[in-house]
Every structure is written in C-alpha cells, then in structure tokens.
Amino acid sequence: MTLSFTQHTLEKLELMLKSLSYKVRYEKGTFKTGACKFESTNIIVVNKYSNLENKIMALAGIIQNLDTDDSLLDEKQKAFFYTLKQTKLKL
C-alpha cells in the first residue's frame, strides 16, 4: 500500500493518534517531528513548516513504531492501523 499525501490522510492519522491518547501539536521551529511522553501525557510535536508529505510520513512512521492497545480504535481505524504497520515508508 502507498499512502496518499492528502489532507484527508493527515486528518485520519491525527484522529487515530487522538484515539490512542496522543495529542498532536503543530509548532514552529527547526526540528524534526517526534513523539514524547511528558508527565504521563503522550505528545507528538509536528513541525508546522513541514510540507504535507513530510507531516504524513512523520506521523505514519510514529504510528508504525507505537506499541499500543488497538482496542481504543474503531474497526476502520484498526484496518488502517494494520495496513500502516505493514507499509514500507520511504523517507
């Protein structure tokens, strides 16, 4: 599967992360997108100035590396989650 680089895909990734109890924030800066746990809060900080493709690739890569409970996802999100897990990302 290849990811389509659309606003819809970005929104699906953001919604999935929200369902998994992650907060996605868009901030200014000269940093790469990443995830961290801060005082038991899961936060993903995305570089506001990255292009759409980079934002999608970064969030998809983070989701692929999450060791998480998929019971928090609805059926459509689970299907997308497992598809993402099996997708090779070309960064």
Count of helical regions: 3
Please report which band the strand proportion falls in: under 5%, 5-15%, 15-25%, 25-35%, 35-45% or over 45%: 15-25%
Helix percentage:
40-55%
Distance between the termini: 15 Å
Task: Specify the biggest β-sheet.
Answer: 3 strands, mixed
**Which structural class matches the secondary elements?**
alpha+beta
Principal-axis shape equals: globular
Give the C-alpha Rg. Answer: 13 Å
What sequence of helices (H) and strands (E) makes up the elements? Answer: HEEEHH
Give the tally of β-strands: 3
Query: What's the average pLDDT?
Result: 87
Strand arrangement across the biggest beta sheet: 1-3-2
Poorly predicted residue ranges: none
Number of domains: 1
Compose a concise summary of this entry.
It contains 3 helices and 3 strands. The protein has 91 residues and is α+β, with helices and mostly antiparallel strands.
